[in-house]
Amino acid sequence: MPPREVACDESGSDGENLTSGNTDVFAHASVHMPLSSAAGHVQEIRDRIRSPAEEYKANHLLREKHRSTLEWLLGASGPLHGHAHVLLVEKAFFVVERMVDLLLGDPAAALSLFRAGGERFGDERWRHFLGASNELVRARSNGEPGAPVEEFFRALDALRRTRPHDESGEILALLARSRERALAHRDRLARSPAVVPALNPLVPAIVGTAAYWSGDGHPVSLVHDEQNVLTAQRIAWITEATRIVGFRLVDSRDDARVQLADFLAGIARKLASDELNGRGDPALTALLRPYVGGDSLWGDERSGALLRSSSTASTT
Length: 316
Description:
Blueprint: E1 4-11, E2 25-31, H1 35-49, H2 58-61, H3 67-74, E3 84-90, H4 91-104, H5 110-121, H6 123-137, H7 147-160, H8 167-176, H9 179-191, H10 202-213, E4 220-225, H11 232-241, E5 244-250, H12 256-276, H13 282-288, H14 301-307
Parallel strand pairs: 1-4, 4-5
Antiparallel strand pairs: 1-2, 2-3
Helix pairs in contact: 1-12, 4-5, 4-6, 5-6, 5-8, 6-7, 7-8
């Protein structure tokens, strides 16, 4: 059978700097529809908004005066319904999940630790621990190779001094015994950087996107907006790890489907961040919900329940 061609773009990328970057949410959106249909939808968005801007972005649609256009775009009778998917990443949770997987080989344990967070350990200690975890796992390091290890265990000790007597305390105790694994990780990175950066959410998001669109056994070909992180070596790794049979990088301005994915990614990132921070718009969150994949990497329980749908847009 011919491959299903899916167009993709992201919003909120800060590389591996996830705890002190510009955004707290990363979103990867994908759209499956004929190019001619996408071009017509992009033109309709332009006709509705009537901005003199040469290139339209999500922030045009997020303005209050264009709310009706945003509701049309996401709504059940709009052009994206049934033809689009979004994978969300809560960046702070992603850091904890990757750190726990690296040191304990048990990413599921990250959820208990993350949800204890600032409420259990104090906001200042928790933010320090998140930053130290980020520096430990990420590929790049400023200064001595072993410095991220020492800083991580100092931050870990500060959490342990709060004497948690619950599951989070047990996880901290296990992490305290993982110094050798941490040192080995930094040594490997110093000798030979990983093909896929451990803390850049783009590559796992693409893998998740491919899994969604090929879930019915259909082969998938991706068209993605140009990204520096998507080197030939990394694209080769992605295609080997998934059911992707083709992968092209394009300028989003040259493919209307990628433009729609760009709109959706930017909208989803902003709405999800608002919900995460307790300022969500219930009506817009409800419109976003059908697009959000159940495999999104999200740790916050309250906002996650509001953002995730029990079923996502169908792969038609």
